[in-house]
Hints:
Number of strands: 9
Distance between the termini: 73 Å
Order of helices and strands: HEEHEHEHEEHHHEHHEEHHHHHHHH
Amino acid sequence: MDSTSACGGQPDLDPLRKKLPTSKNCVRCGKAAVLVVQTSAAFCRDCFLNYFTHKFRSGLGKTRILQPGEKVLLAFSGGPASVALLNLVKRGTEEGTQKKRLKIEPGVVFIDESSVVQGLDVDQQQKAVQAVCKIAADTGFPVYNVMLEDVMTGHSSDSEMDSPEREEDVERQVKSLSTDDSGAHKLKTLFEEAKSLTAKEDLLQMLRCKLLVKVARTHGYTKVMVGDSGTRLSIRIMTDIAQGRGAALPLNTGFADDRHGDVVIVRPMRDFIAKEISMYNNIYQLESVFLPTLTTKVAEKASISHLTETFISGLQVNFPSTVSTVFRTGAKLCVSQGSKQEGHKRCDMCKAPLDTGGQGQPLQSQASGDGKDESVANLRTENNSDKQLSSSLCHGCVLTMSELGDCSALSAGL
């Protein structure tokens, strides 16, 4: 039979498929591989686990960011990356030899964002939160449950959970969480009045970060570990550039974010892509919990972040080096020496070095005298009731604030 099919003259690919290798050997031990991370990276089960664990521990070891006995708070959302992070830390603290053991005092925090993120009814939401709390409590670490609206108030409604012996204990502890109805109403109104989904996502990201730092300070933690993977950070790099946050990229995507001073945010999962994390969870049979986000079931172009995620994920399917290329390029950026000085001003919202001259527009635009950027900045300032607040924000936060409604409650809370 001819190599071209009878319909349309298209080439018959079956002979080509038959020539492709059907199996690979592990790149480390030479045994039959069961996992293929990339075309040139095939592993057997044991070698993959050793590779994954070593990669995690070497990232912490090279930076020497954790000190023996230091209290570290793990941000847990129930997603695949945070589930893998929790498992890695738990196994690290239970390491057989004293030399290899992870000598830290971990705690776990879960932020309930149901006041602004809809998608599940009350019963479904409660069951999902219970599942997340059960996974966190099973580690034996102290678990803190907080509501997102706590960031708007001077107090915290966090509740520390003991390790439960029965599922009923988790349900009882979840139901006992106190909520601030006034704070929840203010926060919900603020998100409802936002003009775009991009502004909502940006605001939620900042509030989440502020609340993590707040809980860490309240309970004496000096480090906060988050489960941002390399895939997620690659999307963040492209999104931040599009939103005018290029000056803050080293802080938003770096291994350690020290903008908050006494509390440092650490990203130990940044060297792993989503595929590797999924494989790790599958081997250990770690279950994640689905909680809806602001972009659940929305259109592809609903927000800058969601569009960027679709773009990066689509390229990664056919070009497996997409994520690593974007991530490694972004990792080469660093904070300017001038912004590290003690007297350098910082943004009141995101705490990144201020990249404006006090007029809400980028310093580069001011230097070049671009009239168009100046008019846009003035328009944003007029639209906000608090001009003094606008002058103390970075360019990215000015863009976000310009798309929000009444920001008086937000500025008072932050």
